[in-house]
Write a structure and sequence with these properties.
CATH superfamily of the largest domain: Glutaredoxin
Oligomer: single chain
Bound molecules: FE2/S2 (inorganic) cluster
CATH class of the largest domain: Alpha Beta
Helix content: 40-55%
Number of helices: 7
CATH architecture of the largest domain: 3-Layer(aba) Sandwich
Largest sheet: 5 strands, mixed
Radius of gyration: 22 Å
CATH topology of the largest domain: Glutaredoxin
Number of domains: 2
């Protein structure tokens, strides 16, 4: 007669604590650097976004616990400010200024052109993950409006034609 073999079942509890994701580890480290002060939530979110590239949904409860805030409070701040990305950014983040001086020099047409050209409405990332297009409000380059910022490079007097040339340059850089 065959011996019965003891087996574990799916219903047995897994007692190992879940392994934190790199974003959660980063979130806890940033909170700790700010003394876990809830009043520093904005700085913490900016710093975290700088490190991780965006604010993943799953870190919101981690931030809330560390800062002794409710998850709704953290969620409210992240969704209220357009500066915070909730999805990973594209390889190139293109920020287009929509403030007054740039408005008067045609930034709306530029935005529409950029959206069509890259297939990504403002505030989103193109399907191929190459470009994120974001609106910003004054890049300090008003004398040369309309202005855009890509990475840390500022461009002035950007009309649709110049925009296409700049994007073509980015594509060449990526392919090199
Ligand atoms: S208004 Fe666009 S750079 Fe200042």
């Amino acid at each position: 007669m065959a011996k019965k073999v003891a087996r574990t079942t799916d219903s047995e509890p897994n007692l190992a604590p879940p392994v934190p994701t790199p974003a959660e580890v980063a979130a806890l480290a940033v909170c700790a650097r700010h003394g876990n002060k809830p009043s520093e939530l904005m700085e913490i979110l900016h710093e975290l976004q700088h490190q991780v590239g965006y604010i993943p949904e799953h870190v919101l409860p981690v931030l809330a616990r560390a800062l002794n805030l409710s998850r709704a409070e953290v969620h409210g701040v992240v969704t209220f400010y357009h500066d915070f990305r909730r999805e990973p950014p594209g390889r190139h983040v293109i920020k287009i200024c929509r403030a007054e001086a740039c408005q008067s020099m045609g930034t709306e047409q530029l935005c529409q052109h950029a959206e069509r050209k890259l297939g990504a409405p403002l505030g989103t990332t193109s399907k191929d993950g190459a470009y994120s297009v974001e609106a910003v409000y004054c890049l300090g380059n008003c004398a040369l409006s309309p202005a855009i910022l890509i990475g840390d490079k500022l461009y002035g007097k950007v009309d649709p034609k110049r925009f296409d040339d700049i994007v073509a340059g980015l594509n060449k850089e990526t392919a090199a």
